[in-house]
Amino acid sequence: MINKKKDTQIDRRRVAIVIPVYNHEGMVAEVVKSAARLGMPLIVVDDGSTDGTYDRIKEIPSITVVRHDRNRGKGAAILTGFAAAAPRADWAVTMDADGQHHPEDAWNLIRAVSPGARAIVVGQREGMDHSNVPWSSRFGRKFSNFWVRASGGPDIGDTQSGFRLYPLPEAMDLNVRSRRFQFEVEILARAKWRGISVLSAPVGVIYQREGERVSHYRGFVDFYRNSVTFSRLIFTRLCILPFGRVFRRQGRS
């Protein structure tokens, strides 16, 4: 854990927590109960789980559970959570359901935003060199960081972190096309294109031993999806966005 101090310029009453879950029955109740202690509105989006995930969370008090009838992807679950949070919140903190985050580190994300600013804050996980962290996770972070920069996105150190603070409704208005894991890298590029600041703040990380952590990353399939997403973003950056700027200048003249 990095810091528990709660002095912040953002009104905590206008921050909601969104936790997308899919087949996380082993950890989900502990994660949700720990996050609920922050005292913020908490929305859990069950993205079509087929195990006992829903049974583990359905009776936890003071949370909102939204269910997808089938698995639609992490990005789709996050957007569902945003829509549920928007009527009562200006900001949404997202965190994963696999138990790797310290929920109280959400305060580090919140404090990173200057008064009056509207920014996305990504939690940069410290301790990623621990022996329990799979080499694939370390490589994936470096791979993702490079291609996010190549796509015209922000130069930050942990583009794969799911522990984030998003401004609402700006994040809902970025026309992100990806609906699975790729949502979290695409939204960073599109935010930068739109002039929305993307910041980093340190957060702790807990990695269970191999075999204990639930991961839904599917090797070749998701590598292919990542490649398609980055190719589309780079093409948009190089071949579409410049023409849009020209047309806007012509319109103003």
Write down the CATH class: Alpha Beta
> Which structural class should the secondary elements be placed in?
alpha/beta
Q: In CATH, what is the homologous superfamily?
A: Spore Coat Polysaccharide Biosynthesis Protein SpsA, Chain A
Mean pLDDT: 88
CATH topology: Spore Coat Polysaccharide Biosynthesis Protein SpsA, Chain A
Could you state the order of secondary-structure elements as H and E?
EHEHEHEHEHEHEH
What's the CATH architecture name? Alpha-Beta Complex
Strand content: 15-25%
* Form type: globular
Strand ordering within the main sheet: 3-2-1-4-6-5-7
Largest sheet geometry: 7 strands, mixed
Helix percent reads 25-40%
Determine the N-to-C terminus distance. 53 Å
With helices defined by DSSP (H or I, 4 residues minimum), what is the helix count?
7
Number of strands: 7
Low-confidence stretches: none
Radius of gyration: 18 Å
Descriptive notes:
The structure is a single chain. The protein is α/β, with parallel strands linked by helices. It has one domain (12-252): Spore Coat Polysaccharide Biosynthesis Protein SpsA, Chain A (Alpha-Beta Complex). It is built from 7 helices and 7 strands, in the order βαβαβαβαβαβαβα. Strands 3-2-1-4-6-5-7 form a 7-stranded mixed sheet, sandwiched between helices. The radius of gyration is 18 Å and the shape is globular. It starts with 14 loop residues before the first strand and ends with a helix. The mean pLDDT is 88.
